[in-house]
């Protein structure tokens, strides 16, 4: 068993799905979406897995009742993603390990966004100073961040920025709990396959479903939404580290 603690945020309504069914209960390949997430999480052999539920909480809890070792936390009321994660604090406040916080934002109103990392080695009681991850982007607008961690201090982060005049997905990795990071690597390296794809990149982020994971072989797998500048046409793309 590793020192990885997993929190699955499953409290959302899924408003954009235009359905009365909670988002995590929609079926993908015949199985509720959340079951796919939990199956992937189990591959990491985590020390604990906590699921934060909210919308249609009783229905979601009934579905997950057969999962041994799963901790369910109710987010009430639902006040967004950060609040959902905070809802898990009572059951994870004493967990050991390194926390890495990844976020994007601008330092002044109207300025381009940058991507930052902060880390904690004492369960979030104290945090390091922020470290910018987009220093190679030349001031380009950075957004759409995602992060994943595994045992032994392995972390991977991804984000989008428009250096060079088009958006691309970039990745950096850490093998020491976020103390140091590898150089930028372009993940969105396909230059064709859709009208919005060029040798420079793609037109704009599409949706807000970008994510990254680490598979059982320790390799990063990124999923990202890419589209045109009007965010009218777009698709979900993926790439896997060799």
- Roughly how much helix do the residues carry, as a percent range? 10-25%
How much of the polypeptide forms β-strand, as a percent range?
25-35%
Summed up, the helix count is 4
Query: Nearest-angstrom radius of gyration?
Result: 18 Å
What CATH first level of the largest domain would be assigned?
Answer: Mainly Beta
**Strands of the largest sheet, in order across it?**
9-10-11-12
CATH topology of the largest domain: Neuraminidase
Determine the mean pLDDT: 88
Largest sheet: 4 strands, antiparallel
Topology:
Layout (H helix, E strand, L loop, with lengths): L4 E6 L16 E2 L2 E2 H10 L5 E6 L3 H8 L5 E5 L6 H6 L2 H4 L6 E7 L8 E7 L10 E2 L9 E9 L3 E8 L6 E7 L10 E2 L17 E2 L5 E4 L5 E8 L6 E7 L2
Parallel strand pairs: 1-4, 4-5
Antiparallel strand pairs: 2-3, 6-7, 7-8, 9-10, 10-11, 11-12, 13-15, 14-15, 15-16
Account of the protein in words:
The chain has 242 residues and is mainly beta. The chain folds into 2 domains: 1-96, Alpha-Beta Complex (Spore Coat Polysaccharide Biosynthesis Protein SpsA, Chain A); 98-242, Neuraminidase, CATH 2.120.10.10. The protein has helices at residues 33-42, 57-64, 81-86, 89-92; strands at 5-10, 27-28, 31-32, 48-53, 70-74, 99-105, 114-120, 131-132, 142-150, 154-161, 168-174, 185-186, 204-205, 211-214, 220-227, 234-240. The strands form 5 sheets. The chain has a 4-stranded antiparallel beta sheet, with no helix packed on it. Strands 13, 14, 15 and 16 form a 4-stranded antiparallel beta sheet that branches. Strands 1-4-5 form a 3-stranded parallel beta sheet. It is globular. The mean pLDDT is 88.
């Amino acid at each position: 068993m590793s020192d990885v603690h997993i929190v699955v945020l499953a409290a959302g309504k899924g408003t954009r799905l235009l359905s009365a069914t909670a988002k995590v209960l929609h079926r993908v390949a015949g199985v509720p979406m959340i079951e796919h997430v939990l199956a992937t999480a189990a591959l990491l052999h985590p020390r604990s897995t906590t699921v934060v539920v909210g919308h249609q909480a009783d229905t979601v809890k009934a579905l997950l009742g057969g999962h041994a070792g799963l901790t369910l936390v109710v987010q009430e009321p639902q006040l967004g993603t950060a609040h959902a994660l905070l809802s898990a604090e009572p059951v994870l406040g004493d967990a050991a390990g390194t926390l890495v916080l990844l976020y994007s934002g601008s330092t002044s109103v109207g300025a381009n966004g940058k991507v930052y990392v902060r880390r904690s080695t004492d369960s979030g009681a104290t945090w390091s100073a922020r470290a910018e991850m987009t220093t190679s982007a030349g001031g380009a607008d950075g957004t759409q961040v995602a992060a994943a961690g595994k045992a032994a201090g392995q972390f991977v982060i991804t984000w989008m920025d428009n250096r060079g005049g088009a958006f691309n997905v970039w990745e950096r990795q850490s093998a020491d709990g976020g103390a140091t990071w590898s150089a930028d690597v372009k993940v969105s390296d396909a230059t064709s396959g859709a009208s919005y794809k060029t040798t420079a990149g793609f037109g704009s982020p599409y949706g807000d479903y970008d994510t990254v994971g680490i598979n059982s072989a320790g390799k990063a797998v990124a999923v990202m939404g890419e589209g045109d500048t009007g965010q009218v046409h777009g698709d979900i793309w993926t790439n896997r580290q060799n």
